[in-house]
Design a protein that fits this description.
30% helix; 138 residues; 30% strand; five-stranded antiparallel sheet; 5 strands; globular; alpha+beta; 3 helices; Heat Shock Protein 90
Length: 138
């Protein structure tokens, strides 16, 4: 059984934060994948780590797009620390929307490709947060 990792890479004033907002449409996910890859490369992630993170962000966004309200926008917040990249994606949802269960294949993908993943649904908005710590050396 894998150890449980909690989302503890909190940003500080000295950390870099990038905010992107795109229409909640699959055609715009390439923008978020590219931003993810660029920021992970800045942290000197290995190529396979970058690709894993791109896939995880894509999967998280796909989960959110399935429950997004009409004409919604997908908000993405990237927080860069010395050793980790935290990606938080959120979208306003349709009434009664629910994210897939943590036992679903989609969640298995997220937890396999990142250090930690969590989801919240509050006040008509769903958020998925992904934390990836760099495992390779600089």
């Amino acid at each position: 059984m894998a150890p449980v990792t909690y989302l503890t890479a909190q940003t500080t004033i000295d950390d870099d934060v990038v905010l992107l907002t795109v229409p909640a449409d699959g055609g715009y996910l390439g923008v978020l994948r590219t931003a993810t890859a660029g920021l992970a490369a800045r942290l000197h992630f290995a190529l396979d780590e970058i690709e894993d993170l791109r896939i995880a962000v894509d999967e998280a966004c796909a989960m959110l797009l399935a429950i997004a309200g009409p004409d919604a926008e997908l908000d993405c917040r990237f927080a860069v620390t010395d050793e980790a990249l935290t990606v938080e994606v959120s979208v306003p949802t349709v009434s009664g929307a629910r994210l897939p269960a943590e036992s679903s294949f989609a969640w298995k993908v997220l937890t396999a490709l990142t250090t930690a993943a969590e989801a919240t649904t509050r006040d008509g908005r769903a958020t998925i947060t992904l934390l990836t710590r760099r495992v390779s050396g600089i």
